[in-house]
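tool=predict chain=A
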Amino acid sequence: MRKKFRLLVTSASAVAIAAVIGITTTNNAIAEGKASSSLEEGKELAFNRKKGNCLACHRITGKDMEGTIGPPLIAMKSRFTKDALKAQIAEPRTKNPNTIMPPFGTHAILSDKEIDKIVEYVLSL
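tool=predict ok
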């Protein structure tokens, strides 16, 4: 029983150390100016399956495995202002109570800064 406990503790410690090293590496890259632009960060968040995951429901020109549930994300500047798009992403139930789009802001799936980056990216489409 003790051997299993030691193995468990050792494994958990290794995972924790690996996570800290990964976070430190990421923070160093950002501090050194290697971080991508806000537009690139927005794109990464929009495509990240654990964050925006926009492609699960929306079509974006030039991307594979696009969704067809939501409207295509094209000509966004002609359809939304920056504030209106941010409100739509943060709490889509305001305009459509029956929507299946998750309220990314209300449910804290995305932070305000992350929503701002996604808005910048989506408005560039």
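The radius of gyration is 19 Å. The first helix runs from residue 2 to 31.
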